[in-house]
Amino acid sequence: MDDEKTQLEEQFILRLPKDEAREIRNMINYKPERISKYLKMDLNTADNSVTVSWCNKRLYGALKKLPTIVESYKTNICNNRSNLFKTADICYMAACSKDVDEITTDKVETIHGLCPPLKNVKKKRFRKTLFNKELALEAEWISKELYYLLSTDLEAVKKNVEDNNAPANSKQFSYSFY
C-alpha cells in the first residue's frame, strides 16, 4: 500500500453560517474537483484565528479546542467498502462568522461538545482539578508522609498498634505482631 493512503491526517471541524455551509456542501457533492479553486483557508495558530475565503466572501473565525476527542474514519480505501480505517483524532473546531466583531479568540477551550447531549460536558463529566495551591501542597505532603510510614512499617521487626481514640471507660489496648 502507498504511504500516502495510510498516513494519518490532521483534521478539524469547520463550522460555517448556514448559507455558506449549504453552498460548500453542494460544491463538494456535485463538483468536488473545483472546491480548491473557490475555498481558501488561512489558519493562524499563534492567536487561534481562522480566515476562510469562499467565492469572494471572507469569513472570520476562531480555532477552539473541543472538550472531547472525535475520531474520523474512511471506508473506501482501495475500493474496500466493508472495512473502516481510522484517519485522525479531531480535537479542534473552527467556528466562523461573517462579522469580525462576533469572534473571540481569547477563550481557546470550549465547554460544550458538538451536539446537544454534550452541552456543558466539561463541567458535568470530567473530574475537577485542584486549583488551591495550599491544599495541593498539603495533599502532596500527606501522601509522602504516608508512603514513608508504610515503607518504615514494612521494614520493622516488631509492630505495635495502639488505639488513642478509645473511650475513657474502656481499657487501653495494644497488639503485638511478629
Report what the structure shows:
The protein is of the alpha+beta class and 178 residues long. It has two domains: 3-124; 133-177, no CATH class. 27% of the residues lie in helices and 30% in strands. It is built from five helices and seven strands. The protein has helices at 3-6, 18-30, 35-38, 121-124, 133-155; strands at 13-15, 39-44, 49-54, 57-74, 85-97, 159-162, 174-177. The longest helix is centred in the last third of the chain and has 23 residues, at 133-155. The relative contact order is 0.13. It is found in: Nucleus. Keywords: Nucleus, Transcription, Transcription regulation. Belongs to the TAF7 family. This is TAFII55 protein conserved region domain-containing protein.
Q: What count of helical segments does DSSP give?
A: 5
The gross shape turns out to be elongated
Level of helix content? 25-40%
Number of separate strands:
7
| End-to-end C-alpha gap | 66 Å
Mean residue pLDDT: 78
Quick overview of this protein structure:
This protein has 5 helices and 7 strands. By secondary structure, it is α+β, with helices and mostly antiparallel strands.
